[in-house]
Design goal:
Blueprint: H1 3-25, H2 32-35, E1 69-74, E2 77-79, E3 82-83, E4 86-87, E5 92-94, H3 98-107, E6 110-115, H4 122-133, E7 139-141, H5 155-168, E8 174-176, H6 179-182, H7 202-210, E9 215-217, H8 236-241, H9 255-268, E10 274-276, H10 277-281, H11 286-295, E11 299-302, H12 307-310, H13 314-323, E12 328-329, H14 348-359, H15 387-402
Parallel strand pairs: 1-6, 6-7, 8-9, 9-10, 10-11, 11-12
Antiparallel strand pairs: 2-5, 3-4
Helix pairs in contact: 5-7
Length: 406
């Protein structure tokens, strides 16, 4: 019998025995142990529950990364005009001036930041001028597709030509938001969802390979976002606060279907390098990610907004880093300002947590202390990676894909 079940059984047995004693002796008063009422439960709204850990273990604050960092995944600009995730014009809204970013970068040993949402056309050229050319070697900009023309007859060639022009304008890669797979529809924002492996995009993928532009691709979301938002969902609070983040029901495909479509793209375009963001969009299942990486040598992954997943499986994650040490990139998904995604907001604390996760063997610490609740109610453990792996993850792997020097 389980220990807890045994205690409950003994408690019930004691209560029955006490009751029997009352009957057999003819007593009109129950023993004190019986007549004392159990304490009432205290009501507490789940959103107000913020437990303080009583665990006492060593803590190591990492002020600067051990090696210069290339953050391959940041958002320094957003589409100025968009609808349901689709940029309508390619024009950008810039979040903060580069001078403010450089102060944090210098403090935290960040060699360079990649702005993946660099738009296209005039927006891209403005971003390159504002960041890349104004501060050479500190910023790099990725371009984005022109989704608004996707259902026009000449789109495949037009988009491929736009990639070639973007490379000439200074783009260092292409960013695919989860617009593709979860938002983009045949009539832009209505009609059937456009599939990730739609052949209309084949010329675009090929153009990226021909112009040495890696593709940073994000087409899915955490597995819990595809499940009912109920008491069994480990990210209930997050989804309950943001119901529009759920992709359960309606006409959304299953998570596995989206990832399989993405894998078909990787298979069809072996000469194009794909940076599959958020640890292959399946950090909860590193076995699945490993299988894809073994099958597709043109696939790399980055860490953005997923140390919460990696850090709760430290032994499995450490083995993953050891095996794929040449194909893992440092990224945060950082946004300089804003409160919609507090666990990803750019700043000193964000980088200190990432460094602590990678460099130390600290136990059971917050991965998103600014977010209440964070992605899930758990804490993480550090990996304590050796120097030979740290340097690759921090900069060497990204430098190779971007064709730059650290």
């Amino acid at each position: 019998m389980e220990q807890s079940n045994r205690r409950e059984w003994l408690a019930r047995l004691g209560t029955v025995a006490a009751g029997a004693a009352v009957v057999s002796t003819g007593c009109t008063q129950a023993p004190d142990s019986v007549k004392e009422a159990a304490p009432k439960k205290k009501p507490l709204d789940l959103s107000e529950y913020q437990p303080t850990s009583m665990l006492r273990v060593p803590e190591h604050k990492v002020e600067r990364a051990k090696y210069p960092v290339i953050d391959i995944h940041t958002h320094l600009s957003w589409a100025a005009e968009s609808k349901n995730g689709v940029s309508l014009t390619g024009k950008l809204s810039f979040i903060v001036p580069p001078e403010e970013l450089l102060a944090v970068m210098d403090r935290r040993n960040i060699r360079a930041m990649v702005n993946v949402t660099g738009g296209y056309g005039d927006g891209l050229r403005e971003s390159v001028q504002k960041y890349d050319k104004a501060h050479p070697g500190r910023f790099y900009t990725f371009t984005e597709p022109m989704w608004t023309q996707v259902n026009e007859p000449g789109y495949p060639k037009q988009q491929a030509d736009a990639i070639e022009q973007a490379a000439k304008d200074g783009a260092r890669g292409l960013k695919i938001l989860k617009t593709l797979g979860l938002y983009l529809r045949e009539n832009i924002t209505s009609g059937a969802l456009v599939k990730v492996d739609d052949p209309r995009f084949d010329p675009m993928w090929e153009a990226c390979g021909a112009n040495h532009l890696p593709v940073a691709i994000h087409v899915s979301d955490p597995a819990a976002f595809f499940l009912p938002t109920d008491r069994f969902n480990e990210r209930f609070e997050e989804l309950n606060n943001h119901p529009d983040w759920s992709f359960h029901g309606r006409d959304f495909p299953k998570n596995e279907e989206i990832l399989e479509a993405r894998n078909r793209v990787l298979a069809r375009h072996p000469k194009t390098q794909f940076i599959v963001l958020h640890v292959g969009n399946y950090a909860e299942d590193l076995g699945n990610v490993s299988e894809a990486m073994d099958r597709y040598p043109n696939m790399t992954v980055e860490l953005g907004a997923r140390i919460g997943e990696l850090g709760r499986q430290p032994r499995t994650a450490r083995k993953f880093f050891e095996k794929y040490q040449d194909r893992i990139l440092f990224g945060t998904d950082a946004v300089p300002k804003g409160d919609e995604y507090p666990q990803q907001v750019f700043g000193d604390l964000l980088y200190q947590i990432y460094y602590r996760f990678l460099e130390t063997e600290d136990e059971y610490f917050d991965y998103a202390p600014a977010a209440v609740p964070p992605q899930g109610r758990w804490r993480i453990y550090g990996l304590g990676l050796p120097d030979r792996i740290l340097e690759k993850v921090y900069n060497a792997n990204a430098a190779r894909l971007l064709r730059i020097k650290v």
